[in-house]
């Protein structure tokens, strides 16, 4: 049977775009402040989940909702189950957007909104792959469980709740990364460092507050520092020069004996800190050479050590594995308050096989425990790898090659996807090689042609895997 998958997918183009726009309009970021018994993660994630399940019901698929935190679309029959795992939650929009992040804009062949590339666009690309199979009357010889989570960007509460009662697929993929394939994912852990404050009084330069960051898995775009100091033209000039020299933007304001400094860098996914310019550490790098109060100086010293230290060399946790590559560090969240005697830094670390989180923690303690209490945040993941000779990997790479004419090779990332939930699970698309990586960044977008191309690949891949 010869099938033109691109042609079959193009048949649904208008429907796919319409469904995606409606889904993108839902602010589905985790909202614990407004959680209820019916909406454990807040109303947004549940609304997005039910929107996707409504699409599936409309199209004649069987569905199941698990406590408004996860769901399933069912297709096919057999003794083996293929899983397709995606998520409808998004990271916070943050600042720096040129348009409303939850009012999708179609411009220059792309859709701009929070979640277009991570993960609502890829989710619907894969779902429309199922629709193509259904339209063609193809009956998969395996069960297909299209599993939808609502908390992938945080603690994975949705899928953990799902698998308390539902069976795990035998194998599968998550459309939540990049092509050709991601068959290896580094471990993920966040460390929280809480400063030990000493008794002291304010000085000429006193760090009153420092704030930056939204989520552990995001390189912070912006940072704000409030400093008690007299009006100082030399200080003001130095800050402006620093911004210009480093090609950064920012602002400063003096009022009532305090400077408020703001600096804007470039956000990125914490899995790829090299793609960002950490607003927090850039601001700290400017402040570090001034004679601050003792507690402020301690806080700034660690922040300065973290500046551009994406491989952990300065903080002495650098490690590299021949298969998975180097450990990476994102200094993601900063909160300091002089009056509250509170200073906190959260580091998000992606680490390869060959090292474990206790070894990393021990190294931190050796260097920083005199100044900080160091703890491991509860939600963490160990490294995951599916060998390249596994039929799952071979089939997905062959499908990619058939549609792109490009060689498919194994891939390792620092990002974490639902693919790692399954022993034989990988990530497969939907970002193509050479495409802009705008996940977790302002002005997130995905090209419509890429969504359609990915959908054709997913349709063919599911077909091949369930013959």
TrEMBL record:
Signal peptide: none
One Pfam family, short name: Peptidase_M20
GO biological process: L-arginine biosynthetic process; proteolysis
Cofactor(s) demanded: Zn(2+)
Keyword Zinc: yes
Alphabetically ordered keywords of this record: Dipeptidase, Hydrolase, Metal-binding, Metalloprotease, Protease, Zinc
GO molecular function: acetylornithine deacetylase activity; dipeptidase activity; metallopeptidase activity; zinc ion binding
PROSITE patterns per record: ARGE_DAPE_CPG2_1, ARGE_DAPE_CPG2_2
PANTHER family: ACETYLORNITHINE DEACETYLASE, N-ACETYL-L-CITRULLINE DEACETYLASE
Record-stated family: Belongs to the peptidase M20A family.
Protein name: Dipeptidase PepV
Organism in which the protein naturally occurs: Agrilactobacillus composti DSM 18527 = JCM 14202
